[in-house]
Amino acid sequence: MKERIARMLFWQEREQGGSLVMDRYGYAQNYASHALARYLELTGDRLVRAALVRHARRVRDIPPLSHGMESYLATIHSLVVGYDLTGEPSFLQELKRRIEPLKMDALPRPIDDSWTQRELFAALEKASHLPKNPDGSRPIWSFTHGLRVFGWTHAYGLPYALRVLAQP
After folding, report:
1. Could you tell me if 57 and 10 are in contact, meaning their C-beta atoms sit under 8 angstroms apart?
2. What are the distances in angstroms from CA 167 to CA 92, 161, 162, 164?
């Protein structure tokens, strides 16, 4: 594990402009931030702490967009970690901005067995504030694409964002 972490920190500085994740795999932000934050918690490793802060600043200032909203929203946890480690208000401000598209309008009726799959997907898409693809095609983060975005945002990022936002 130490060898893998050393490699991540090496490439962060030399090839990735401060990011812990290659730009091609921007949606993988969660894996790096969760793993290294946990490692930091267990070891107190100051180099890992510095790397997490550097990474959080990088994704705050230059959001990854290689996979559109998947990559963009996968940075939520990194911003939380940056805020937790530094208390810098800019992380909190950017965190609020990043989660804004996750808010949804109310559905016209409760979700129950009366919905067909097609009706429910259409209603969810209509209620969503996630952006459309610029070319008009259905984005990979749409509800009808199996909610790929769920893990990268809601499950791996949103609970941590809500914890930080609930603090006085």
Report:
1. no
2. 11, 10, 9, 6
Q: Give me the percent of the chain exceeding a pLDDT of 70.
A: 95
- The position carrying tokens 């090496």 is 10
Helix (H, G, I), strand (E, B) or coil at 150: helix
Mapped onto helix, strand or coil, the DSSP state of residue 155 is helix
pTM to 2 decimals? Answer: 0.90
Q: Where are the alpha helices (DSSP H) in the chain?
A: 2-14, 29-43, 46-61, 69-73, 76-86, 89-99, 117-127, 149-150, 158-166
Report the candidate in 44, 45, 36 with the shortest Cα–Cα distance to residue 81. Answer: 36
Find all residues with CB under 8 Å of 45, minimum gap 6, and list them.
5, 39
